[in-house]
Amino acid sequence: MISIENVSKHYGSFQVLTDCTAQVKKGEVIVVCGPSGSGKSTLIKCVNGLEPFQAGSITVNGVSVGDPKTNLSKLRSHVGMVFQHFELFPHMSITDNLAIAQVKVLGRSREQAMDKGLKLLDRVGLKAHAGKFPGQLSGGQQQRVAIARALAMDPICMLFDEPTSALDPEMINEVLDVMVELAREGMTMMCVTHEMGFARKVANRVIFMDQGRIVEDDSKDAFFGSPRSERARQFLARILSH
Amino acid sequence: MYEFDWSSIPGALPFLWEGMKVSLEITLTAVVFGIVWGTALAMMRLSSVKPLAFFAASYVNLFRAIPLVMVLLWFFLIVPQLLKSFLSLDPNTDVRLTSAMVGFALFESAYYSEIIRAGIQSVPKGQVAAASALGMSYAQAMRLVVLPQAFRNMVPLLLTQAIVLFQDTSLVYVSALADFFGAAYKVGDRDGRLVELLLFAGAVYFAICFAASQLVRRYQKKLNAHVAH
Ligand SMILES: Nc1ncnc2c1ncn2[C@@H]1O[C@H](COP(=O)(O)OP(=O)(O)O)[C@@H](O)[C@H]1O
Ligand SMILES: [Mg+2]
Fold it and tell me: How many CB atoms lie within 10 A of CB A242?
């Protein structure tokens, strides 16, 4: 489904990604972790072309992301993305947040889009908030709306960039629960997260990044059992100690 | 001791109202055109297409470096001639109002574009990323996501600029166009009651601008309450 081959990227002389290679098969859940600044967000943004890269290639469902001839908007419309800071549109109601791209990008009718939006809102447990504005919801609720908004586009896979790291601790689980359910339904997912409980529960593989390189790409049992690199060991020890 | 005599005002009210309509007409055209063209300039200036950004920056810097009254004078002296020869109008057609509107609109666009540019930049980058990630084109992301938020934040500044603009319309006196100020001046001159008429005109400008500023402040309070959740 997602194939990342030898991708490198630099900002001026600063190398952000070096020779990254990874595959995500249909229905797989991949967790990406690593210290802050290691290039996780950059890598995941390369997958849907939000960040350009200078070397290597990425294909999503057979479509080459780096190819200038690729219609990136079309590709992105069926690759869902969830951001650390939710990025709901604050000037629109929750229903409009859910409907706008369905109508303007996919060309669905407003009724169809509303209908679909409300179903997904119900699924993330927020139907009662349909008429509100994002600013009236808690962080956890906003992030669940953001997931519903991405799902409304019928994505073929979902990208998550630290979806719970901006949340108060008591709200993390309500978001993770939605993600776990999604994973169990067979959604292909690439998740940047430090929630190791989530990784243990649903991940097929764990990718560990450090200084722009993919240092480990292991099954979760191997990763949690005996990480091969010293950096990953230290990282795990630090993460799991709190 | 100077004896005030206000008696020439009531009879002149219809004429003064005609002048007020000219002032309001110029203000309104300049605001509408200024916001539309100013938005275009702001987007050019922020675009990655170098020639567009250069053009917009030069335009803005040029107009902001010239006094408004000079711009107006040029427009009164040059544009009417051009308009008449281009549109082959009768040399006696009065195009002073049109050229005043054009002059103000082009001048104010420079100021509006700076307000709008700041407004666009005040919208977090993540909003564009989110819109793009949903498959929106750059134009859709601007139109549906960035500009509505930018304008909502900018309304107070845009209105304040409109109030300044309304006051500045009095500068059209350089072309002897009878805007509100010009009309008051003419009446005062005719009746030898310049002091009264100018005091009256000042009071009207003050009342309108003060009331408008109060409205802007009320809106701003509401906006702040809304944004602060
Ligand atoms: N626009 C940019 N210009 C220059 N450097 C950047 C830019 N964006 C990110 N970086 C750098 O790239 C590195 C990787 O960033 P990021 O992918 O956000 O890391 P992570 O998500 O793992 O914390 C960081 O060192 C960051 O400072
Ligand atoms: Mg990050």
Answer: 4
In whole angstroms, give the CA distance from residue B99 to residue A9: 54
Q: What is the share, in percent, of chain B residues with pLDDT greater than 70?
A: 96
Say whether residue A132 is in contact with chain B using an 8 A CB cutoff: no
Site of tokens 């050229």: B99
A232 Cβ contact list (under 8 Å, min separation 6) = A208, A210, A215, A216, A223
The architecture in CATH of the region B9-228 reads Orthogonal Bundle (1.10)
Q: Which residues of chain A have pLDDT under 50?
A: none
**In chain B, where are the structural domains located?**
9-228
Q: Vertex B74, ends B69 and B80: CA angle to 5°?
A: 125
- Using only C-alpha atoms, chain B has a radius of gyration, in whole angstroms, of 21
Q: How far apart are CA A54 and CA A45, in angstroms?
A: 14
Taking the C-alpha atoms of residue B170 and residue B23, their distance in angstroms, rounded to an integer, is 8
pLDDT value of position B228: 47
Which candidate, A191, A141, A203, places its Cα nearest to that of A34? A191
Q: What is the pTM of this model?
A: 0.85
Q: How much of chain A exceeds pLDDT 70, in percent?
A: 100
Q: Do A73 and B133 touch (CB under 8 A)?
A: no
Q: Do B130 and A77 touch (CB under 8 A)?
A: no
Q: Which residue has the tokens 């500009």?
A: B147
CB distance A218 to A30 below 8 Å? no
Q: Does this complex have an ipTM over 0.90?
A: yes
Protein residue closest via CA to atom 17 of ligand 1: A39
CA nearest to B128, candidates A89, A155, A156? A89
**Segment A123-153, tens digit of pLDDT:** 999 999 999 999 999 999 999 999 999 999 9
B1 pLDDT band (50/70/90 cuts)?
low
- Cβ neighbours around B66 below 10 Å, total: 12
**Beta carbons of B134 and A136 less than 8 Å apart:** no
Burial of A121 (0-12, 13-18, 19+ CB in 10 A): buried
Tens digit of each residue's pLDDT (9 = 90 or more) over B90-140:
666 677 888 888 889 999 999 999 999 999 999 999 999 999 999 999 999
Is the pLDDT at B71 greater than 90? The verdict is no
Cβ of residue A108 closer than 8 Å to a chain B Cβ: no
Comparing alpha-carbon positions, the chain A residue that sits nearest to B149 is A91
Kindly give, in sequence order, each residue whose CB lies less than 8 Å from that of residue A3, ignoring residues fewer than 6 positions away: A23, A24, A57, A58, A59, A60
Q: Are strands A205-210 and A14-24 parallel, antiparallel or unpaired?
A: unpaired
